[in-house]
Structures are given as structure tokens and as C-alpha cells.
Amino acid sequence: MDEVLSQNEIDALLSAITSGEMDADELKKEENEPKVRVYDFKRALRFSKDQIRSIARIHENYARLLTTFFSAQLRTYVNISVASVDQLPYEEFVRSVPKMTVLNVYSVAPLDGRLILEVNPNIAYALLDRILGGKGNSVNKVDSLTEIETLLMSQLFEKAIGNLQEAWSSIVEIDPILEDFEVNPQFLQLVSPNETVVVVSLNTAIGETSGMINICIPHIVLEPIISKLSVHYWMQTATKNRDINAYEKISKSIQHAEIEAKTILGEASINIQEFLNLDKNDVITLNQPIDHPLTLAVNNEPKFYVQPGTYKNKMSVQVLEEIKGVNVNNE
């Protein structure tokens, strides 16, 4: 893609050519020369910038959810935000984290593979200190975690699974399960060293303690949903969601609408004289044969053929069939 120059850069370039500091012929020669860009095959870029932005968008939502969750659990100031989203070889990720740290390994069915939630020891111990009633101070002794401390940390990050599930729900419904808890990244060989992973780094502050939470997502996890990590998909989904919301609102409104349903037992015609002479025990003969079904009208429109009966000691009708394209008044 051609680089777009600002007005100041254009003015400086014209000034340099006018003063003779730069030769226009040399510029033309440079333009005609083939441009070569260095490509590192060990650091294969398997995700486009568009897809990386989509992953960042998902985890911005996840950071907000995690902030609310930890604030409620720890009852102290917590602030989590996305610092960066990068794609790099798995080996480079392992080298970038401390030798002793807190690693939570999640399976994310129905997606293949597993992802890692790496919590800096400063943050991990601030969390633990608050859980145990402290002020949130951090003492890095991750290499000597007791069984109780390990259990408390595991339970905390197991409770936070719902936030990950909700953040990813806009792309895919996942069922995260905390499968492993490790402190040494060297013992955790999730994928091959050269496998491309996406690392989402979250700036985390708990009280006066700050550190990083890193989420490592291997390519194998994202591969089935790569097509969904695009602007086109997000826009299509947003339009679809608007249509669904409009449909749901109309449906709910219709469900609360009141209608009149009545069953016509039959009809009869008498003159005024007969009406005036009606007396007790007189019988009016209806035009409805006893062996024919009755008609159920909804807002005076015939909709169903029914038969009379009782249900729970109340008069009722049972629907036999729907009236389709028949005008009962013309039968």
C-alpha cells in the first residue's frame, strides 16, 4: 500500500528538491527499483490485521467483564485493559513470561486445543492476599505455593470462566473448563515451538499492585472460526442481531394483544311476533345440525372447526381443524 504523506511532509520534500538537497531523478530511479521486504519464516504471520483487531475487540469486552468480576470478588479497586495483541511463535511466548509464574490452562470445547491464561506473580499474590483478607500486597513466592494457596487460586480462576464464555459468545459458543494449573512454563508444551499463537496482554491493577495477565491462544484453537474474525462478519452479525431484536419485540407485543374468541352454537331466524310470544320452556330450533362441528371465530373471523365438551368442570371446545380459505357466512 502506498504511504500517504502529510502536507508538512510534502512541503519539506518540495523544499528539498528546490534547494538541491534531493535529486528528482534519483527519486524516480528509486521508485523503479524493485522493493524487497524481509520475511522471517520462523515468525509466520497467520492472522491478518483485521482478524487481530477482532480478537482485540473480543478481549476488550473480556477485560471489562473481568474487571467487574474481580472488583466484586475482592472488594477493592481493580482495573484491567487490553495493552496489546500480537502473533508470535509459541517458543517466544514461553521465553517472554517469568520462569516461575501462574499458568491456568483451559479447554474451550467445541474448539480444538487449549489456551493459557498466564497471571504475573505480582497480580496472583495480590489476588490471593485479598481473598485471605489482606490489603492486596504482593509477595512473590510462586515457586513455593502451598496446596491451600494453589486450591484458592484455581477456584478463583475457575469462577472467572463465565466471563471468558460471555466475551466469546459474539463469535462462538464455547464451554471453557480449567484443566490444569502450572507454575513453570517449561513444563507446559501446548503446541510445537514454532506454532503461531496470539498473545493478548492485559494491563492489570489491583489496589496499588500492577502487572500483566497474558492470554495465549494457539492457531489451532482459532482456525475453525477464522472466517468469523472479519469486519464483514461483525457487520453482518450486527445487522442480523438488529433484525432478530426487532422480530422479538414485535412477537412480544403481539403476545400481549387481547383477542375475542367465541364459538357459534348455531343461528335461528324468528319474526317479532314470535319473539314477543316467547314463554318459559319454548324451544328455538337452530340451523346447526347436531352431528356437524361448531365454528370458533377469532375477532369475528371463522378460524377453527371445534366440538363442544367440558374440561375441569367447565364448558369448553376441542379444536378439530383449521378453516382455510372458507367463508362460513357463504356456506
Please give a structural write-up.
It is built from ten helices and ten strands. The chain is elongated. With 331 residues, the chain is an alpha+beta fold. The longest helix is centred in the first third of the chain and has 26 residues, at 49-74. The chain has three domains: 7-36, no CATH class; 42-237, 3-Layer(aba) Sandwich (Chemotaxis protein chec); 261-330, SpoA-like (Surface presentation of antigens (SPOA), Roll), CATH 2.30.330.10.
Q: Return the CATH topology of the largest domain.
A: Chemotaxis protein chec
**β-strand amount:** 25-35%
End-to-end separation: 75 Å
Low-confidence stretches: none
DSSP, total strands: 10
- How many strands, which pairing sense, and closed or not: the largest β-sheet? 6 strands, antiparallel
How many structurally independent domains? 3
Mean pLDDT: 80
CATH secondary-structure class of the largest domain: Alpha Beta
H/E element sequence: HHHEHEEHHHEEEHHEHEEE
Judged by helices, strands and strand pairing, the structural class is alpha+beta
Cα Rg: 36 Å
Put simply, the count of helices is 10
Q: How is the largest sheet built, in terms of strand order?
A: 1-5-6-3-2-4
Domain Flagellar motor switch protein FliN-like C-terminal: 253-323
GO molecular function: cytoskeletal motor activity
Pfam family, one: FliMN_C
GO biological process, one term: positive chemotaxis
